Structure formats: structure tokens, C-alpha cells
């Protein structure tokens, strides 16, 4: 509600740049663990943004469900059908996946002698074959993720997952939507490599999905001011739309556009993506605060 603190945004951009510079042997894992949030939720069970907020109790079991591969397989059964059928199919699938998550949460809470908190309905991809949010969007008819229609497809997916999941869980919270981390989604990686998915298209997609620009490798010579300006853009989307957004950018020393960067494990790998070459340093140097919108005063 207090707007965007641009001095803090500038400092975060500098921290990202310094962290990358201090990381040895072009290993960008240090940056991969740094995420900046706008409007963060206090019951998020998904890393790297997971935390138990100050308004929460001392202990709770929060469970995140996923299942992009299950949704993809369900949509394979309705190829050529209308978007009405697509939405209903996703809702039904999300209901079943969430119901399993609810049962797991209840068992875990009982065994750990802790109160059950929430179910987070987010679709979290991995770099394994068949576990991709991008592939769900392509199953809807897109030649490649990032093509015209991608934002509309993602909006449908996000909404249908929430509608189906809410009926299956007694308490829903967290981020509850579709994640689009580039390095952790094989379909996203392939889309960047073939040139259909750009940083600007990813930013547009963050307007309708969970979180924001996630696990994106950028050239090592990207300036701290440019990083800060991208953070400011993403924070503005969150502030104006009253939603959670976040940024996890990874400048990789010595790497240029098209180079591949291995992060290892669940963090996967990513091709270095192009960043707009025009300068925003004077904009970032202004400091101060971008005022919150009028809706922030609603009580």
C-alpha cells in the first residue's frame, strides 16, 4: 500500500549484480536463490519465496500441489475441442490433484502434530520431460510458447486451476496459480532457444499468472540499473493489479545471449536471454517512491 520504494529497488539491482560477480566459476547458484517480491503472501510453501509470515501462527503445515504433466495429458484427450471444454477439463483435473494434496496435508499435519494451514494450488513445473507449463499452453494449440495467444492461454489455465482446486480443498492460500520459471520448465527452455519466448513476452505473461519473471539467465554484462528497472516494471504490475509478483534474474558472468547455463538439480538449466539494450540508469537514479494507486486506500 505504500507504493514502490525505488531506492530499495536500486539496492536490490546492485545486490544481484554483486552476487553474480562474487560467484566463482560462472556458477550462478547464488543469484538463483535471490528473489524479490511485491505483495508477497505469508503462507507460501514454494521455494525460493517460501516463508511463514508474522500474521501466521507459530506452526502450520502448508502444502503445495503441482501436476502440470497430469493437466497436459488430460488436454491431450480433448484436442480440437472448444475452450469451454478445455476449461472444464482443467478444472476437473485440478480438482482431483488438489484432493490428493488435501489428503496428504491432513495426514502430514496429524503425524507431525501440527495444525493444517493451506493448500497452494500452484502448477510448479520441473525441467523433466512431461512436467511443463509451457507444454500445456502448446497443447491448447500454440505452435510454441510465446506465440500470440500465449497470455490468453495462460490466463485460462490459471483461472481454471483455481476454480477446480478451490472445490477440493478446505482452505486455499499461498500463490495458487501457474509458475513460469524458465530454467525449471523444459518447454520454456525450448521456447527461448527457438526464439518464440522473450523477456518482454514473459513480463506480459506475469500479468495473468503466479509470481513473475523467474529463473531467467541474462548476460553477465547487464547493468545493475537495468536489473533494477526490470524489477521496478514487475513490481508495478503487482502494485497496480493488486497481485503477487516477483523477480529472480540471474546475470551470468562471461555469458552472452544464447549461451547455456547449468544450475543443477531442480533448478535445471537455461539459455541466456536477450535484455533490452536501452539505458534506464537516469530513471533508477531518481530514487524516492512511486506512489501507490488509489485502490490501495480502499478500506
Can you give a write-up of this model?
The protein is α/β, with parallel strands linked by helices. Helix content is 41%, strand content 14%. The chain has a three-stranded mixed beta sheet with strand order 2-9-8. A three-stranded parallel beta sheet has the order 5-6-7, covered by helices on one side. Strands 1-12 form a two-stranded antiparallel sheet. The longest helix has 29 residues, at 83-111. The termini are close together. The mean pLDDT is 91.
Average pLDDT level: 91
User: How many helices does DSSP assign?
Assistant: 10
Q: How much helix is in the residues?
A: 40-55%
| Rg, nearest Å | 19 Å
Q: H/E series, N to C?
A: EHHEEEEHHEHHEHHEHEEEHE
Contiguous uncertain segments of 5+ residues: none
Strand fraction equals 5-15%
Q: Based on CA inertia axes, which overall geometry fits?
A: globular
The beta-strand count equals 12
What is the structural class? alpha/beta
Termini gap: 11 Å
Amino acid at each position: 500500500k505504500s507504493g514502490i520504494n525505488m531506492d530499495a529497488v536500486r539496492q536490490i539491482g546492485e545486490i544481484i549484480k554483486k552476487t553474480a560477480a562474487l560467484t566463482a566459476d560462472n556458477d550462478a547458484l547464488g543469484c538463483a536463490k535471490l528473489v524479490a517480491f511485491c505483495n508477497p503472501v505469508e503462507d507460501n510453501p514454494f521455494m525460493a519465496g517460501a516463508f511463514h509470515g508474522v500474521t501466521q501462527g507459530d506452526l502450520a503445515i502448508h502444502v503445495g500441489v503441482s501436476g502440470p504433466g497430469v493437466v497436459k495429458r488430460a488436454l491431450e484427450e480433448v484436442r480440437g475441442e472448444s475452450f469451454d471444454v478445455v476449461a472444464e477439463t482443467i478444472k476437473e483435473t485440478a480438482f482431483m490433484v488438489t484432493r490428493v494434496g488435501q489428503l496428504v496435508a491432513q495426514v502430514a499435519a496429524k503425524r507431525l502434530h501440527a495444525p493444517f494451514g493451506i493448500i497452494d494450488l500452484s502448477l510448479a513445473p520441473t525441467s523433466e520431460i512431461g512436467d511443463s507449463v509451457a507444454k500445456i499452453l502448446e497443447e491448447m494449440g500454440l505452435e510454441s510458447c510465446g506465440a500470440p495467444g500465449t497470455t490468453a492461454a495462460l490466463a485460462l489455465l490459471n483461472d481454471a486451476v483455481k476454480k477446480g482446486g478451490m472445490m477440493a480443498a478446505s482452505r486455499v492460500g499461498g500463490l495458487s496459480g501457474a509458475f513460469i520459471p524458465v530454467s525449471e520448465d523444459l518447454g520454456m527452455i525450448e521456447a527461448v532457444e527457438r526464439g518464440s519466448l522473450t523477456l518482454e513476452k514473459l513480463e506480459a505473461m506475469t500479468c495473468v499468472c503466479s509470481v513473475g519473471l523467474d529463473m531467467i539467465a541474462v548476460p553477465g554484462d547487464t547493468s545493475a540499473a537495468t536489473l533494477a528497472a526490470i524489477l521496478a516494471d514487475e513490481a508495478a504490475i503487482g502494485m497496480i493489479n493488486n497481485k503477487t509478483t516477483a523477480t529472480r534474474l540471474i546475470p551470468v558472468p562471461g555469458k552472452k545471449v544464447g549461451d547455456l547455463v547449468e544450475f543443477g538439480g531442480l533448478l535445471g538449466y537455461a539459455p541466456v536471454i536477450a535484455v533490452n539494450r536501452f539505458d534506464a540508469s537516469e530513471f533508477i537514479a531518481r530514487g524516492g517512491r512511486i506512489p501507490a494507486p488509489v485502490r490501495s486506500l480502499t478500506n
